[in-house]
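Reopening this ticket.

The earlier resolution said the output was attached, but the attachment link was broken on my side. Pasting everything inline this time so it's all in one place.
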Amino acid sequence: MRNHQALPAIRRNLHALCCPVCKEKMLLQEMQLKCINGHSYDLSREGYVNLVGHAVKTHYNKQLFTSRKSITQKGFFKPLRDFLVHEISLRKNSSENLSILDAGCGEGSLFSQVLEMLRGKYTELNAIGADLAKEGIKLAGRDHPEVLWMVANLADLPLTDNKVDVILNLLAPASYYQFCRVLSPRGILIKVIPGKEYLKELRDLYSIGRSRHDETVPMAISLFEKQFRYVENKRIMRTISVEREIARDLTEMTPLLWNLKDKKEKILELKKVTLDLHVLISSMDRQ
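Inline output:
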């Protein structure tokens, strides 16, 4: 059973978990997480824990996460993966234990690639992936039992204070209050947002005008910079050749094309796409 394979990851991270209802510490009893007030959460067959407790509807379905996983495995996000590994290694001594959270991890494929490259650099590597979309977490738990995967609300993380050394927030919504709360005193936050040229070839191909997203890029950067005292803003720009398999997956992955008809045939004309990402890096210190 996959849930038994996930037990070591849960034990390694148990000290950082708290009950999402009463905020008390959690205990592992057989295949359940329980707090002293009796709130309990079963470890799923796929090896993840649902700490939301109720059904949540999102636009992110299984097909989207399957396509994102496929694209990641084919190397689409390799420039970002390598950049993240370099920045974490640069800022965190290899002799230390490292606790790392991917907040908004989706299906976990990019996070798992980062962890694989970091593994062996640290005395102990404790990893948690959290997302509100259960379909993504189910895939993550099935494929990567070495991580504690949980369905969780980023706006109310079921984690105790000051227990996480690194938070990744990659192309996902942020909750800066929660991030600051759970980060350790020397912790760092790495947030990635799409730049104005991100997947611009898709907009050109389908005659999609500049979206409101283009206007919100500087706003998102400004908001981040207001939250933290020490901020670095770095940019990744690459032109990536696109094979037919990646082109098809892009139609399912990006919200740009969700409402378009006949998208699968036209996308085969695509030969390259632009990866344009802003990487915002900050320490725990706040203004």
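Reporter confirms the inline version is readable. The longest helix spans residues 212-227. The longest strand covers residues 183-194.
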